[in-house]
Design goal:
two-stranded antiparallel ribbon; globular; mainly alpha
């Protein structure tokens, strides 16, 4: 007796639904248990970061702090897509650059303020992700990575070739800084509160998003896409939604970058940048909430520490990243849990 399509679908649900619920259930309960502490730790951590301008020895250190917080927005948004959603994008630096150039061009060419450029950058990057994601997210595995890689390469060519708009290889000059009540945030010290607040809001949005129904749907799709479809989750729409959200956050980071530095250059947004962002997600801890913070600190600080070794900078950076990934495959964020696990009493059989 042959099984009908309805019977086959029922059998599929009976096999896959328990697996999805089993995979989602523990993570959901653990996340719910950690949720208040994560909110508390987030507030406490950012309150500590507020003292950076007061303890920094010079403006250069404050500039590194600004860049680290901008990098945090970038890495956290990619971690949302890659770590929690299981979708590898090699075009994240491209969305970062698109947001930077969109906001910068609107300011330089059309005279719009940076405050209008910030939401415009997020909207333009998100719209581009929607257009790219509709065909690209139907691909799987390395085919998706190749599609986003091609998108990033196209953007870099446009940034270099559209000289009248972007300034070409010389970069976009004349970008104005943010201003509040007539006071320009044109120094590293004045820009810090804005970058601090923006990074806090993005991290808070990600935390709330992960604890929502959409966040649980994303983890279900990452665990088993076929099973997620079987229990009524539209896996394609879920992936597309988070692809758009991730790109919009990268656009925000781009707008902050161009108005804080008052300059943008195509080389900042190249393919190598996208690859490094993926590595930083892995080093910090892919699929962990605090991993991007560690990844952003490494991404910002290590190149500065290796400036004295200019000839060997890339090699030392690569060896260091390789060492961390081999010794801590779960990323640096997994180290505390691994250490605590060693001291927990083992159950006797």
């Amino acid at each position: 007796m042959t099984s009908t399509p309805l019977t086959s679908e029922t059998n599929l649900q009976q096999k896959l639904v328990p697996k999805i619920l089993e995979a989602e259930g523990p993570s959901r309960s653990k996340f719910a248990a950690r949720r208040p502490s994560n909110h508390l730790w987030l507030i406490l951590t950012w309150l500590v970061l507020l003292v950076v301008p007061f303890v920094a020895s010079n403006a250069y250190v404050i500039s590194l702090a600004n860049m680290a917080l901008i990098n945090l927005i970038l890495i956290a948004s990619l971690n949302l897509l890659m770590g929690f959603g299981g979708q590898i994008s090699l075009g994240h630096a491209g969305f970062f650059g698109l947001g930077a150039y969109a906001s910068g061009i609107l300011n330089v060419k059309l005279g719009l303020t940076a405050w209008l450029g910030l939401p415009a950058a997020a909207l333009i990057a998100a719209t581009a992700a929607l257009v790219i994601g509709l065909p690209a997210l139907r691909l799987r595995g390395h085919y998706l990575s190749m599609a986003t890689l091609g998108w990033n390469a196209i953007l870099v060519v446009l940034f270099n070739q559209l000289v009248d708009l972007t300034g070409g290889p010389n970069g976009l000059l004349g970008v104005q800084s943010f201003s509040v009540a007539g006071i320009r945030l044109d120094t590293e010290l004045r820009a810090f509160p804005l970058v601090w607040l923006a990074s806090l809001l993005v991290m808070l949005a990600i935390l709330n998003l992960l604890g929502s129904r959409l966040g649980r749907a994303l983890r279900a799709v990452a665990t088993n896409e076929l099973g997620a479809d079987a229990i009524g989750i539209d896996s394609f729409r879920t992936k597309l939604l988070f692809f758009v959200i991730s790109a919009g956050m990268a656009g925000i980071a781009g707008s902050l970058y161009v108005h804080v530095n008052q300059y943008a250059s195509p080389e900042t947004f190249g393919i190598s940048g996208s690859i490094l962002l993926i590595v930083m997600v892995a080093i910090g801890g892919s699929g962990t909430y605090w991993g991007p913070l560690l990844g952003a600190l490494i991404y910002t600080a290590v190149p500065q520490l290796l400036l004295d070794y200019e000839d060997a900078e890339l090699m030392l950076f690569g060896l260091g990243m390789l060492f961390v990934l081999i010794v801590f495959p779960g990323g640096l964020a997994s180290v505390p849990a691994a250490v605590m696990g060693r001291f927990e009493p083992k159950e006797r059989l």
